[in-house]
Design brief:
globular, mainly alpha, about 400 residues
Length: about 400
């Protein structure tokens, strides 16, 4: 059996193109392991480049290329003009990360059935990652505190929650449109439980905001029921979960005060370096000069806020690029909202809103694994909304295009 057929692609798919798609789904599955994910991602980009050179793939443009290019340019300029150029090489690697989006979109556009292959692998990734975290939670029996939180296959709990948040919303939105799918039911249950057990408040907030926005746009009357249900759920939650939620409102709590002091320091940094920022990876070094005396930590890795971090570190153009990227993607989703692939537009809105909301309390845009899963979801959503397949070509085993 040919590789193309094994991947659910047409038999006539050229072998190099099939190999590129194989590398791409390998990247999707390995997103929790950053080194493996990077290897597969760069192999994907290299193979796509080869296929473009051989004219086996047709290049294409998308408006989202513009803000991504702006972000790359802003980051490179910031690194070149920074007083400390410790991360100049890293900004060259950033261009490689950005190129994943056009590489993925070119593949998904040229081989329409690859969209279903990528989506299926995303389902496998979400269920596997959630299962990994749940097994880890059971293995940590007796040590379920903030110092022993689950990390899954990632290096940090914040990365795990950053991967589970979009996965849980994709499963949820698609399940609402196809409730008979066992895969989606399992995915919803596992990813939501694992996300809950990360005890990551920013991810919880992102999920709440995303679901609230979907309700406002699709079922506004449901909000009247959602609020009391949420209050009851929190009131009768287990003590660790209840305490974690309530701690969000205590500004004297160490991590909350730390974020407030980081935001204040970030504003001061922006005032001194408004155009190009202090340079990539330099916030950690300059923060002690701007921190207030009662800030819990002397050194920090970043400012725990996408907006403040991007402006303070990379300058105003990087912030504009970030906001422009979100705006343009949401505009694409708005255009596809009432179409035949409306569920993907809804999933795209949910993911984008959730990641932006969570990013107000965590620099998730700077986390390689989270940055890449965001680009992957953007590419998959855009591809599904652009060119829906005829009914006779849709692989029903993956996901029906119509509702239940």
């Amino acid at each position: 059996m040919s590789l193309a057929r094994r991947l659910g692609l047409p038999e006539e798919t050229p072998q190099p193109v099939a190999i590129a798609i194989l590398f791409y789904i390998g990247h999707i599955f390995c997103q929790g392991w950053v080194a493996s994910s990077e290897c597969f991602a760069f192999l994907t980009m290299a193979m796509v480049g080869y296929c473009l050179y051989r004219r086996l793939l047709t290049p294409s443009f998308h408006i989202l290329y513009v803000p991504l290019a702006m972000y790359g340019i802003a980051s490179t300029l910031s690194a070149l003009f920074a007083e400390r150029r410790i991360h100049s090489f890293g900004e060259i690697a950033l261009w490689g990360k950005i190129l994943l989006f056009p590489a993925a979109l070119i593949l998904l556009r040229n081989v329409p059935l690859s969209r279903y292959t990528a989506l299926k692998m995303f389902f496998i990734f979400g269920i596997f990652t959630a299962g990994y975290g749940l097994v880890q939670y059971v293995a940590l029996y007796g040590h379920h505190d903030l110092e022993h939180r689950i990390t899954g296959q990632s290096a940090h709990v914040m990365t795990l929650s950053g991967l589970l948040l979009p996965a849980s919303l994709i499963f949820l939105v698609l399940w609402i449109h196809s409730m008979r799918s066992i895969v989606l039911i399992v995915g919803v249950l596992m990813t939501h439980l694992a996300l809950l057990l990360t005890y990551t408040r920013s991810a919880w907030l992102g999920w709440i905001v995303a679901v609230a926005i979907l309700m406002i746009l699709k079922w506004p009357k449901a909000l009247a029921w959602a609020v009391p249900v949420a209050i009851l759920a929190i009131s009768f939650a287990s003590l660790p979960f209840f305490s974690r939620v309530i701690s969000s409102f205590d500004i004297r709590q160490s991590s909350n005060l730390d974020r407030i002091r980081m935001a204040e320091a970030g504003v001061e940094i922006i005032k001194d370096y408004p155009l190009l920022g202090v340079g990539p990876a330099n916030v950690k070094e300059v923060y002690p000069l701007y921190r207030k005396h009662d800030a819990p930590r002397f050194r920090i890795p970043h400012l725990h806020n996408n907006v403040i971090q991007l402006w303070a570190e990379r300058g105003v153009l990087a912030l504009v690029a970030y906001l422009f990227l979100q705006f343009l993607f949401l505009r694409e989703c708005a255009r596809g909202w009432g179409g035949t692939s409306a569920k993907f537009a809804e999933a795209g809105v949910a993911v984008a809103v959730a990641m932006m909301a969570a990013g107000m309390f965590e620099f998730n845009f700077g986390d390689t694994e989270v940055f890449w899963i965001l680009l992957d979801i953007f590419a998959i959503v855009v591809a599904f909304m652009e060119r829906p397949l005829p009914n006779e070509l849709r692989p029903d085993s993956v996901l029906p295009e119509t509702g239940p």
